[in-house]
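Objective 1b: paired records.
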Amino acid sequence: MIWETIVIIIYSLALLLIFFYALATLNLLVNYLKAKKNLTAPKFNLSNTEEVPFVTIQLPVYNECYVMERLLDNISKIEYPREKLEIQVLDDSTDESLESTAQHIQKLRETGLDIHHITRSNRDGYKAGALKEGLKIAKGEFIAIFDADFLPHEDWLLKTVPYFKDPEIGVVQTRWSHLNRDFSILTKVQAFALDAHFTLEQVGRNSQGHFINFNGTAGIWRKACILDAGNWQGDTLTEDLDLSYRAQLKQWKFKYLEQVETPAELPVIMSAARSQQFRWNKGGAENFQKMGLKVLKNKHIPFKTKLHGIMHLLNSSMFLSIFVVAVLSIPMLYIKNEYEHLKAYFIVTSFFVISTLIFFICYWFPFKRIYGGGILKFVEYIGMFFVFFSVAMGFSAQNTLAVIEGHFRKKSEFVRTPKFNLSTFRDNWRTNKYLRKGIPANVFLEGLLMLYFGFGMYSAFIVGNQGGDFGLFPFHLMLFLGFGFVFFKSITNHV
């Protein structure tokens, strides 16, 4: 019974890790519900010209021909005193968009806009390298950053800059909203997950003084904070999380503005979503390796903040636990029905279904914030949660590979997420030239896992001698559907 014991131990540890993560999420929900929307903090009076600080907007871009015109036109409409604003287009492009962007920038310069086209001969450090290069010559005391698919409202700076009146604030981050939330099941699932992060997690942590992260875009930094924290570094795939933790370890404060939305376009193609997920999850693991011990050893951080910080850095690593529980659940089904003396153990492990219940309760609140409450909305939420949970588990294999690479510090290229601008080009996702060709090898693993969990559902009917065991059937059904969705969408690369 040696292998059965090993399976049971690994399965139990993974269940415990998921349970601890669920408890941390529940604590964030409590924080979120108790959080006071503090909008009375000291602020700059931007109607007083003497108080208006100089702001630099940085737009890091790379081969974005579908969205560059939209981005530049949108940014040119930002409301802020023109004599106190400059815009840097940090353009690492290697295609024809480089020339068209230069032409469009020249037209904007002729209107009196202080906008500069900054290029490099290489992509050293990728996005972090571009931001660092621009920072060398940035005139602004504060640095706002927007990725190419983000469309901030005209009054965005007027709503964010005033909070820097507090000299201890190093970052103001705003909440992402989604231009194409209802485009497909894939965009709905991504929006569902991001909404939980930008409400429950960011507010839950920030309201209690725990560490949060700048999300790479739709936020604004104090230049002095960036420099004090060691500047941008390109040794992880999530340079935003890295700099955020280094800044907060230096005791800079972050301000999160849930009420300020910054619209953006979600990836609509499975390959684009996969590359983004891989980068985020691998980067999270890389940052745990880089920052975890520094958080634990810092003498200025309260114990609870350290605990939430470690759980935050281990966010992506939860996919490893989920994947382990999923794969081992079928052997566990057979072990359960083979060894009667383990009955008490399986009664105890059934308690861990409460982890799913906790997530179900916690994610309801971001959903209700976006769509409203009521019985009909709750019924809709039940269906959306089922779909989200299934697809999230369908991503667990590729995300587990990303996490393992991150923990072992295997270096890889920063793969940008292709943008589409669907408001103008309804079908351009079909011919988007930035989409990666070919099918990644791990897609076939996901196809095999779909069949594996199909076998798990079949096993429910044949195990034991009491007419089957259907306790894990719903779990295996979700895994079958989730891996099937990811597999077939990856094979066809359709929305």
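Objective 1b, second protein:
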Amino acid sequence: MKFTALMIAFVILVSSSVYSANEPEDALILYMSFDSIDGEQTIDQSKHENHGEIIGDVKHVKGKFGKALEFHGDQDFVQIPHHETLTVDQDVTVMAWIHTERHTVPNDG
């Protein structure tokens, strides 16, 4: 019985490490977790390596999960040079985690 439990645990461990070693899929166009940056450059963790340049007074800070970038106004941004892989001519899904310190809501009245 102990041997069977040990083998099941081993198979789960090996299968999860094999899954995590997989390359990002081709459909992923751009992925920046911001967990690590290279000087003034953000790292694209997709296969396409569309790294971005940090412009302005952007801070690398603790995020809700891992690290994040903190922006203060319209002079702070990440600029990603155009590349053909960034041209989307079909359906696309975009996801971003954004935390704002204040919200501007239109007047209800």
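The CA atoms of residues 2 and 103 lie 57 Å apart. Residues 2-20 form the longest helix (19 residues).
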